[in-house]
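Q: What residues go here?
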């Protein structure tokens, strides 16, 4: 029945939130993450603007997860059988949560990195460039390009197969960033070896062809090199 007053509407909204938190594990994780972010904001005494941005990011993630839960419940109400469009509706809603969560994580890094990493001699991060902007930006560009290429070739699944290998692209992007960040020869060689092993495992498990792995490694390496060349 439709609520007859704003008090009843408020109760319905609260009941909806409590039901979602009770039944959705991921939503409980988001609330715990918001609690940690709030604690860090108060502990480091961030500026008013930074506090506003952190709270806004947390609210957007929880909002996206609530919408995702609502869509899942609606789809389950319409049909209890497998249907391709029902799957797409749930997947896209989950994708909205993922995008929002990644954006919130980036915002949290931009705000809190200046307080956490230098710790004692930092200025508010929004006034100066945070540490690791180029490596993080390069990695995000690699991920976006992998998503676009996988969507174009429409082969495999996001984490299993497809052109190019996302694992190889990300692994080599991280390896190149470490090598160009002055971490030393030994650390650079170890990270490069790890990237090679990650890429090789994708072929040994027959998840990717050698061509897909080589193209993924080339994509991650090239994009990261160009990012450091133009922006570092």
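A:
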């Amino acid at each position: 029945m439709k609520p007859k007053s704003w008090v009843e509407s408020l109760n319905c909204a609260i009941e909806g939130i409590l039901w979602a938190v009770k039944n959705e594990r991921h939503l409980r994780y988001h609330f715990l993450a918001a609690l940690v972010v709030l604690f860090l904001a108060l502990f480091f005494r961030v500026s008013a603007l930074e506090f506003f941005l952190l709270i806004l990011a947390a609210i957007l993630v929880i909002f996206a997860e609530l919408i995702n839960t609502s869509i899942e419940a609606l789809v389950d109400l319409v049909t209890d059988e497998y249907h391709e469009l029902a799957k797409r509706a749930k997947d896209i809603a989950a994708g909205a949560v993922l995008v929002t969560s990644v954006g919130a994580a980036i915002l949290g890094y931009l705000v809190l990195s200046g307080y956490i990493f230098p710790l004692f001699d930092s200025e508010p991060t929004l006034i100066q460039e945070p540490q690791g902007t180029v490596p993080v930006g390069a990695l995000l560009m690699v991920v976006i390009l992998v998503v676009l290429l996988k969507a174009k070739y429409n082969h495999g699944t996001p984490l299993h197969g497809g052109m190019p290998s996302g694992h190889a692209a990300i692994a080599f992007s991280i390896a190149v960033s470490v090598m160009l960040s002055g971490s030393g020869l030994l650390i650079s060689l170890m990270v490069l070896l790890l990237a090679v092993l990650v890429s090789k495992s994708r072929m040994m498990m027959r998840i990717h062809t050698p061509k897909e792995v080589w193209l993924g490694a080339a994509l991650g390496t090239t994009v990261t090199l160009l990012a450091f060349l133009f922006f570092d």
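A: Context that may help when evaluating the design: The chain has two domains: 6-116, 133-231. Residues 133-231 form one domain.
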